[in-house]
Amino acid sequence: MMSRQKNDEPLFEPYDSAALTRLRRSLKAWYAKRARDLPWRNIGDAYRVWISEIMLQQTTVATVVPYFERFINRFPTIHDLANAEQNEVLRHWEGLGYYSRARNIHKTAKLLVEQSNGVFPQTTDELTALPGIGRYTAGAIMSFAFDLPGAIVEANTLRLYSRLLCLDENPRATHGQKVLWAFAEHLLPRKNIGPFNQSLMDLGATVCTPTDPKCRECPLLPHCGAATADRQNEIPMAAPKPEITPVIEVSVAIQHEDRFLLRRYPEGQRWAGLWDFVRFPLGDAESLVPTSGLTAAAKIPQKLIANIELSVHEATGTVVELDRFLKEIRHSVTRYRISLLCFLASTEHATPEPNENLAWVPAEQLDDYPLSTTGRKLAVLVQRSQPTLF
Ligand code: SF4
After folding, report:
1. pLDDT for residue 5 is more than 60
2. Does domain 7-228 bear CATH number 1.10.340.30?
3. What confidence category does residue 386 fall into, taking pLDDT thresholds of 50, 70 and 90?
4. Do domains 7-228 and 245-384 have the same CATH topology?
5. Which DSSP state fits 41?
6. Which of 161, 211, 224, 235 gets mutated to test ligand 1 (max ligand atoms within 8 A of its CB)?
7. 245-384 belongs to CATH 3.40.50.150
8. What is the pTM of this model?
């Protein structure tokens, strides 16, 4: 379905102008009946398009919809977002993960308000120069908000284009990406570009699904290389899976009277700007954890207790007494499969002193702080916990 010119640029032979006209017509008729009704669509508002597209990176539509509605309710304009405290922006992002996205939208909102009174630029170069805006988001803003020729390649269209072209290479690698972006540009109509791009995304999401695509319902079946070759389930080529590394980490809710110690992650870290209880990797002390794991009812090895109390002291300067094991939370971060052992501890002195990155917070006020997902789970546990001493 694709050949090469001498300069190695892909040439999409079967997609000549007559074929493109047929493809666009079929797609338009399908979209008129099957378009998804999403709260950020058909409003021509670059701010809402931008927020929704950033939220949708690595996250499903079903998860994003309530977050988007809450976010827009609190920050209805780019000026509201620019004027907000980072803590509040992160609190409204809490649970969506990939927090650099929230930090970047806050930075970009401030920048645009300062530079252009909040008006978005309308070229790929200017848009991609802004923090957190890549080629896909720029294409989405240009086409959905301004009906300008912005191409898009995201998860759904990557799969769809790969199958249309019967692409026999990794679509996420450099060359595969070059081919797909060139194809996305090649497909673009001269007008109604936003609805055209949205119809491709919807078709990828609802018909050209990752497994068992519904080819019989697909308006692009006559144009599809993978369906013609009966290779829909082999394409796109799967990305190599990263090797998973298991690690054990510890999170300690340190209590002084009715308050708990929270610390803010510094700049440059994955969870920068978020708050958390004292958390650290167990490292060499992993061997002290019984192979059967820990439970609230079982006795915790004294050596492990001593090791954790010492690590807390090294990390904070606080002398604590580990009161009880609360729960093991399992979660994954990139290639790490983390087993997070959560403890409750107490201290006689509220040291170190509070500052902008450290706070002693009453249990009921933990809700006001943006926490990592596991931090929030631990906060709920300490708010509800009942004493069960070792
Ligand atoms: S024919 Fe099948 S594989 Fe090809 S684009 Fe349509 S749904 Fe996807």
Report:
1. no
2. yes
3. very low
4. no
5. S
6. 224
7. no
8. 0.86
